[in-house]
């Protein structure tokens, strides 16, 4: 096989006095031999220039070694060439391409490295000065091989300006770095582990001592995530001064449990401190609530515990809901108190034949938690009714009736299908009960009709309950009176009197009435006018103890007929004889005119023109003078039968005065009001 390159040579730049090593290797069979050319001429081997297994070494390079070099590998099957340029450079030290750091900040006790790497050919020798004084190696100061300087266990005294002096045969250059030594940052008040309750507000402290020349920043991490104070502003807030990064957590929630880390950073160091926060809350909802067994009044309930939110469950309570309850209600259980380690109980005192749902609420030291989801709906078994109707009473109705009433039993207390009432009654003083069945659960009354029932007689009455499972209890016995007998006598001594143009008063003598006949409710007065019909009469009523009534809103100068009858709960009795009265004529429409007043001392003398009634108006019987001060709400009245009047008025107030005529038919139209100013003025 002819030769094939394994390692070819590449263009190289080297400094004066450096050593060049060019490795030139090829494979081939037989193994190739190597020759080197420089600028096309055979390379002569001398003390500085050596070739070994194809590798070229030139030590202590000088500028004349620059040129074009070729490595030739050959065997009997062929020849291959590899060419490269060697540039030997010579230059004084130069910091322009790799300047030294202007400033290094470190804290007391740390180790600091200064770099000094100027460009120089050959490599420069470096020496160090601090503030013009030459530095020497000791147990803390060390010169590095690459020209750098290392100072261990730095103190405040090490602060200052450090100069590196780089030298080779072509020249010298220098660079400098300033060192600032700072106090280490320390957390003086760190957050501590805390145990809090939902809804509280807490402060996690993070206060530091730091070098005043350093800027400081605080960041908080919650469970490894950086806290965003803008996004979580409703709960998280940074509080305290510039040297404090205290974290306030407002209205703390269960989700805020976890690890909090305060991170403090400066340009030279960083410190951190962590604390665990446990938030305790009321328990979560219990799970998988089931009804395992049901009877007519009990239910066996079981459930599984939910989350305790870092505070153990102390008790469970059971709530139930039916179509008849107002929301969820707490129910009685056996055992009455269910501890936090018990997950089953028996609910008692349920109503038979009612659809129930159940739920469970866990409580701990913090308080009651969220209720569980409801169980499936279950219906208790049927049972005989246990509660009889309440408010059993009655009375009233028509002649020969016994009316019995009660409050119907609500559906949740009927205990089963086929619910109804058993009504039992007997005349007071007898032994045999008469019974009847009312099959509608909503019916509130029963009426027994029989000609043999005497008016207003006492009966003993009781009402029981039943359903498909059997008969329940009766209510306690109560006394109910049969229907009364309507009055049989008409009122006597009836008279009618006209009081004005629109009012007639009717009076009568009360009818005789026995308590044994029941209760007299009152009297009914009917009335109609001369042109009207008796059948379409109007009616007014008076209470049982009254013997007169006023009929108002009538037409003037018209005859009205009226009759009276008594009534009670059974009905009304016969009417009295008819009497009549004629309403008076209307009062005059003309007001008193030309009202004149004169003042003498505190006396006011009034005069006005006489009012003359027209033919269809009531005759004038006198006059009313109505007067009041401007501050009084109601009028004072002075009556006179003349067209003049004298008033004694107080001198310190204005007075308002008007006059109207009086007649049998009522008061006439008022004059215009006059104002009498304060007499004192």
UniProtKB/TrEMBL annotation:
Residue stretches making up the Fibronectin type-III domain: 285-383, 388-485, 490-586, 587-681
Ig-like domain: residues covered: 3-87, 93-182, 184-272
Coiled-coil region list: none
Pfam families cross-referenced by the UniProt entry: fn3, I-set, Ig_3
Location of this chain's protein in the cell: Cell membrane
UniProt keyword annotation of Nucleotide-binding present: no
Spans annotated as Disordered: 369-398
Entry keywords, A to Z: Cell adhesion, Cell membrane, Disulfide bond, Glycoprotein, GPI-anchor, Immunoglobulin domain, Lipoprotein, Membrane, Repeat, Signal
Topology in the lipid bilayer: Lipid-anchor; GPI-anchor
GO cellular component terms given for this protein: axon; plasma membrane; side of membrane
Gene3D superfamilies attached to this UniProt entry: Immunoglobulins (2.60.40.10)
Record-stated family: Belongs to the immunoglobulin superfamily. Contactin family.
Description of how the protein assembles with itself and partners: Interacts with PTPRG.
Name recorded for this polypeptide: CNTN3 protein
Phylogenetic placement of the source organism: Eukaryota, Metazoa, Chordata, Craniata, Vertebrata
